[in-house]
Amino acid sequence: MSARRWADELAAAAVALLAATAAGSLLMILAGASPLEVWRTLAARTLGDAYGVGQVIFRATPLVLTGLAVAVPLRAGLFNIGGEGQMIAAALACAVVGAALPAGTPAVVALPVVLAVAMVGGGAVGAATGALRAYRGAHEVIVAILLNAILGGVALWLGNEWLFVGDGTRTATVVEGARFGELGLRGSGASWSVLVALAAAAAVGWLELRSTAGHAWRMIGGGPDAARAAGIDVARGRLTALAAGGALAGLAGAHFVLGHKHAFEEGLGRGQGFLGVAVALLAQGRPAAIVLSALVFGALAQGGLGVAELVPKELVDVLQAVVVLVAAATLGRVTTIGGGRR
Amino acid sequence: MSGVLELVGSLLTVAFLAQVVRISVPYLLAALGGALCERSGVVDLALEAKLLCGAFAAAVVGHDTGSVALAIVAGAAAGMAVGAVQALWAIRLGADQIVTGVALNLAAYGLTRYLLQVRYGQGANSPRFDGIGAEVWLSPLVWLAALLTAGAIVVVGFTRLGLRLRAAGERPDATAAAGVPVGRTRLVAVLLGSALAGVGGAQLSLSVNGFVAEMSAGRGYVALAAVIMGGWRPAWVAAVCLAFGAAEALQARMQGAGTGLPPELVRLLPYVVALVLLATLRGRGRPPAALGRPE
After folding, report:
1. Which domains does chain A show, CATH number per domain?
2. A15 at the B interface (CB within 8 A)?
3. What value of ipTM does the predicted structure carry?
């Protein structure tokens, strides 16, 4: 990759962040707050002490994973907006398995098992979306949105019918061995599941650059016709790309269960799948950049709560959308439309 | 068993038909708006944003002026505002239309909630006002929707504008060579379609006399599914939307009738219907050839 391209991408990300800052300041003025004071408070509440930093890491952890979940299919020209449903399926599956394990199961056994279950759960949803796109020509965005709604309802039904304990909407607690310990940053939520996120980013980087699957995805994303001419099975590539994306979103679901709640709860991780779109686009889909991008959005999310007495906390949602919008304008065309045969 | 019989009986009434119509209006207007936009070659994933902004603007104007007519106009204008950004991004900046649509939806979710806080100091609802309420047959919006539906079918199929926008969506190069400005044609199609979707949003808030945060609840995406299932042909799209309306009205009845089915699953009926149709109904139609491609 040329230095020129790097500079272009960096400039595009900077433009997106500047636009978000400008839009945010305008909205703050609209709400009668002083932008300078809000931005200063936001910085102080996130980077000011160990607790703030820990909370930023805690919020960035699932965003790395949902960002990767968007980035991998995007390589193949597919837009994975199904992170929400993939997370729900994975979180429920890994919470149930995590609670069913024998009480004394050591972490070296329990953690790999529950993480694998989460990846399979999320991956299955992604694969189903991919199959409908690849073999039935149904657009992955619509399918994923419908699946998000359906899986949310099904999880609630399964929970109410069999899985929730007591009167609440929470499943049984997972065994001790299937939990990620806290990092110990002054009572912040940051846990060792951040290592899973970093490992996933590294794995995706390797997969995209060095593996045959990654090569196929890039070819398909570059142009399905050319990929087909080069002998690549486009339908299969689309399916595997969305399955891989689903597995990554599944790990984000696992983070909430294993590193935070220690059970599945109704509404767990809601919105993080959509936020992954913003994370991935700001990073232009590059795994290393996704880690940084997740930290930026993690800081925004945490800081938004910190400035809630100055401006409505919904401000952060608008800023995230502005970043995606501006990134879309600088990125050009990255997705493809049409059925499996085209 | 008697519960099921009662349920079937309740479906053959005028009251049920009214419910279907009331539920179908936002789907109809959003989907026809989407069809107009997509036939011109611009992907319309921003329907959710147009519905939501239309609903919000209609509620604010309805609350402040007390006029249903002005509220409907405000809904259309809000839809067009979203469409203007969408058109600028798609036509001028050559941005990815799918990503743009999703970004606009996220922005609409955040912005309407933010403005709800700023304007009314509330996170979930706008103050109630005299909208249209549950009225159906005397609702001006229902009749306007019928008129707009017929209008959209005629415009796309039988007018010069319709011919131009279909051409822009199929063969922009040939269209431009024939002297028709492709960009401007698409802009007109996007703005008209967005106004329709905005009016659909107005129905959401006016029919419950207030705005509720995230009240579009995925309808924009379902409407786009209807566009695809209707093969991008307005009359078929309208028929699919009525079917969705019937499915949603049916699930409402089933929850009330106590059929013994779990309510969490009954609620999913419209989504499941949409997914099954999407997966099985291939070959009904094909997307406009230049969909999602800049000129």
Report:
1. 3-331 (1.10.3470)
2. no
3. 0.87
